Amino acid sequence: MVACPECGHTGSLGEFAYVSPAYEAGPASLRRCPACGELFVVDPLETEEEGASSPLPWGLSDVWGRKFNGKKREV
Questions:
Q1: Surface-to-core class of residue 4, CB atoms within 10 Å of its CB (0-12 exposed, 13-18 middle, 19+ buried)
Q2: CA distances (Å), origin 43, targets 12, 17, 67
Q3: For the chain, how far is it from start to end, CA to CA, in angstroms?
Q4: Quick one: residue 69, left, alpha or beta (phi over 0 = left, psi -120 to 50 = alpha)?
Q5: Model confidence over 26-57: pLDDT tens digits?
Q6: Is the pTM of the predicted complex or chain greater than 0.90?
Q7: HEC assignment per residue over the chain
Q8: Closest by Cα among 26, 70, 63, 62 to 46
Protein backbone atom coordinates (compact mmCIF):
# COMPACT_ATOMS: atom_id res chain seq x y z
CA MET A 1 0.00 0.00 0.00
CA VAL A 2 1.11 3.52 -0.79
CA ALA A 3 0.17 6.56 1.31
CA CYS A 4 0.30 10.19 0.24
CA PRO A 5 2.50 12.20 2.63
CA GLU A 6 0.37 15.34 2.11
CA CYS A 7 -3.25 14.19 2.57
CA GLY A 8 -2.80 10.62 3.86
CA HIS A 9 -4.76 8.96 1.01
CA THR A 10 -3.83 5.26 0.80
CA GLY A 11 -4.22 2.85 -2.08
CA SER A 12 -2.43 0.45 -4.36
CA LEU A 13 0.51 1.59 -6.48
CA GLY A 14 -1.67 1.47 -9.59
CA GLU A 15 -4.07 4.11 -8.22
CA PHE A 16 -1.30 6.73 -8.10
CA ALA A 17 -0.57 8.05 -11.59
CA TYR A 18 2.99 7.54 -12.84
CA VAL A 19 4.68 10.84 -13.77
CA SER A 20 8.37 10.08 -14.39
CA PRO A 21 11.43 8.31 -12.99
CA ALA A 22 12.51 9.95 -9.72
CA TYR A 23 16.25 9.55 -10.35
CA GLU A 24 18.49 8.75 -13.31
CA ALA A 25 18.80 5.12 -12.25
CA GLY A 26 16.82 2.89 -9.96
CA PRO A 27 13.21 1.79 -9.54
CA ALA A 28 11.96 4.90 -7.68
CA SER A 29 9.28 6.86 -9.53
CA LEU A 30 7.47 10.15 -9.19
CA ARG A 31 3.74 9.57 -8.60
CA ARG A 32 0.70 11.87 -8.33
CA CYS A 33 -1.91 11.46 -5.58
CA PRO A 34 -5.43 11.00 -7.02
CA ALA A 35 -7.00 12.82 -4.05
CA CYS A 36 -4.92 16.00 -3.69
CA GLY A 37 -2.66 15.99 -6.79
CA GLU A 38 0.56 16.19 -4.75
CA LEU A 39 3.72 14.73 -6.33
CA PHE A 40 5.92 12.41 -4.27
CA VAL A 41 8.59 9.75 -4.73
CA VAL A 42 7.64 6.08 -4.42
CA ASP A 43 10.05 3.14 -4.38
CA PRO A 44 8.00 0.15 -5.58
CA LEU A 45 10.45 -2.30 -3.99
CA GLU A 46 9.63 -0.91 -0.53
CA THR A 47 5.84 -0.95 -0.91
CA GLU A 48 3.94 -3.94 0.34
CA GLU A 49 1.28 -5.12 -2.10
CA GLU A 50 -1.57 -7.36 -0.99
CA GLY A 51 -1.15 -10.92 -2.14
CA ALA A 52 2.52 -10.43 -2.85
CA SER A 53 3.61 -13.13 -0.42
CA SER A 54 3.14 -16.58 -1.85
CA PRO A 55 4.36 -19.97 -0.64
CA LEU A 56 5.58 -20.82 -4.16
CA PRO A 57 8.14 -18.94 -6.25
CA TRP A 58 6.87 -17.06 -9.32
CA GLY A 59 6.04 -19.18 -12.31
CA LEU A 60 5.47 -22.42 -10.43
CA SER A 61 2.08 -24.04 -10.63
CA ASP A 62 0.43 -27.05 -9.06
CA VAL A 63 1.77 -29.28 -11.88
CA TRP A 64 5.40 -28.60 -10.94
CA GLY A 65 7.27 -31.85 -10.37
CA ARG A 66 4.60 -34.13 -11.82
CA LYS A 67 5.46 -36.67 -14.47
CA PHE A 68 3.09 -37.00 -17.43
CA ASN A 69 3.29 -40.10 -19.59
CA GLY A 70 0.33 -39.41 -21.87
CA LYS A 71 -3.17 -40.86 -21.93
CA LYS A 72 -3.79 -44.33 -20.58
CA ARG A 73 -4.90 -46.61 -23.37
CA GLU A 74 -6.73 -49.88 -23.14
CA VAL A 75 -4.84 -52.73 -24.76
A1: buried
A2: 13, 14, 41
A3: 58
A4: alpha
A5: 889 999 999 999 999 998 888 765 555 556 56
A6: no
A7: CEECCCCCCEECHHHCEEEEECCCCCCCEEEECCCCCCEEEECCCCCCCCCCCCCCCCCCCCCCCCCCCCCCCCC
A8: 26
